[in-house]
Amino acid sequence: MRKNKDAPVDQMGADKCFDRDATPKVMRYQVLMSLLLSSQTKDQVTSAAMEKLRGHGLSPENILHTDDKTLGELIYPVGFWKSKVKYIKQTTELIVRQYGGDIPDSVAELVKLPGIGPKMAHLIMDIAWNKVSGIGVDTHVHRIANRLKWVKKETKAPEETRVALESWLPRELWSEINWLLVGFGQQVCLPVSPCCSDCLNQGVCPSARRGTSKAKAQNKAQ
Predict the structure, then answer these.
(1) CA distances from 8 to 11, 126, 142 (A)
(2) Of the listed 86, 119, 131, 149, which one is catalytic?
(3) Would you call 119 a catalytic residue per the annotation?
(4) What sequence ranges are listed for the domain HhH-GPD (predicted)?
(5) What per-residue confidence (pLDDT) applies to 222?
(6) Residue 152 and residue 142: Cα distance in Å, rounded?
(7) Residue among 32, 38, 40 nearest 12 (CA)
């Protein structure tokens, strides 16, 4: 179901939003920025904002010299854009002052940056540093892992899901699982009204079976 790689994440995800001709430091900074912007925002909107930022000049030094009003205009309409203007400025200042213009190379240090949570940190490590530190669990991975019962008991938060998945999923698959499930969640296993009838997992998915049984019960009652 993911072989065509035609979901939004495949075309506009964080691994597609940085300038591949940039220096390694700037490339890593752009990966971090794309993930910071991505929170509560669709890939299409994040990608458009990143394109405008790159056109403006997306390096730590240039962003520090960009006023908040201009920065807000560049990233609008990403979710919570006003807060993200502050996060971008604060994070960039720390990167320049404490890390010599490069981003931190550990999850422990990345999550200290304003606007960067565990999911983002693990994805940054994977994409920017080519190091697998953990599974990046966003809303799609969290939702689908619970629907498929890939967690022993229902988890309430993405961090719980990450720990549960890492307890059994082979480490060599940790990098792939985010890409796999995010695209699947964008196209098939939707948050509301998932396309169960089109899903090849229909026969093994506990959630799909429940939906089928409910439909049969309704038809029988009628």
Answers:
(1) 5, 19, 18
(2) 119
(3) yes
(4) 37-187
(5) 35
(6) 13
(7) 38
The predicted structure's pLDDT at residue 210: 52
Instruction: Say which residues have a Cβ less than 8 Å from residue 119's Cβ, sequence separation at least 6.
Output: 136, 137, 138, 158, 162
Query: Is the peptide bond between 77 and the residue preceding it cis, with omega within 30 degrees of 0?
Result: yes
Average pLDDT, the chain: 93
pLDDT digits (tens, 9 = 90+) for 79-106: 999 999 999 999 999 999 999 999 999 9
Q: Mind spelling out the 3-state secondary structure of the chain?
A: CCCCCCCHHHHHCHHHCCCCCCCHHHHHHHHHHHHHHHCCCCHHHHHHHHHHHHHHCCCHHHHHCCCHHHHHHHHCCCCCHHHHHHHHHHHHHHHHHHHCCCCCCCHHHHCCCCCCCHHHHHHHHHHHHCCCCCCCCCHHHHHHHHHCCCCCCCCCCHHHHHHHHHCCCCHHHHHHHHHHHHHHHHHCCCCCCCCHHHCCCCCCCHHHHHHHHHHHHHHHHC
- The per-residue pLDDT for range 128-146, each reduced to its tens digit, is 999 999 999 999 999 999 9
pLDDT at position 113 = 97
Q: Would you say 15 and 46 are in contact if contact means Cβ atoms under 8 Å apart? A: no
pLDDT class of 118 with cuts at 50, 70, 90: very high
Nearest to 124 by CA among 146, 102, 157: 102
What whole-number distance in Å separates Cα of residue 66 and Cα of residue 127?
26
